[in-house]
Amino acid sequence: RLDALADDPGKSPVWMQPVQIMQEQVQRMFPLVEDLLQLSRLESGQSVAKDRVVSVAGLIGLARRDAQSLPGVGGQIDVHLDRDVNLLGEETELQSVVSNLVANAVRYTPAEGRITISWSVDQDGGHLAVVDTGIGMSEADIPRVTERFYRADGGRARQSGGTGLGLSIVKYALRRHDADLEIRSRLGHGSSFVCHFPQDRLAP
Questions:
Q1: Average confidence (pLDDT) over 188-201
Q2: Beta strands at 76-81 and 114-122: parallel, antiparallel or unpaired
Q3: Are 189 and 136 a contacting pair, CB within 8 Å?
Q4: How far apart are CA 58 and CA 121, in angstroms?
Q5: Cβ–Cβ contacts within 10 Å for residue 75, how many?
Q6: Residue 199's pLDDT band (cuts 50, 70, 90)
Q7: pTM of the entire structure?
């Protein structure tokens, strides 16, 4: 209805600015609603079946391309894959994990910084890491950053966008893949987010 009102040639000029403001507010709400719906699905679900092979290189490649198109990105994004081993699970959910972690790193890393995405496999399972040289966070923030809408740095987060739900989505998507999230960070020294997948989630 807002679009119809905006396109109405007979509307009063008095309504032009209010309609434009309402349209902008609706556009800003779309990502939030989408993230809330996705989070609701993840929270209510059980473990994902292990019947689909998901390319880890494909997940990382898409997340890297998307991150390079984000506003303000200027730092270097490196990728290291040390094994040609893939994951078993739901591709859409795993893509959300990687994309949210990489986008988060971009938002909190200055233009001269560096982001590294890596995938390694050992006797314990598979380990997908996103490490940045950004602003980091305090030790007190680390246990809370996966809570809904929690901001380790509210002012910076508001300026850089995001819905405040990305890390919550990561946590629950990993849980559905029997995986854990390890977070390490220091103020002024960057952050490290590592997803640990068990052996039975790996596919050659």
A1: 96
A2: parallel
A3: yes
A4: 17
A5: 20
A6: very high
A7: 0.77
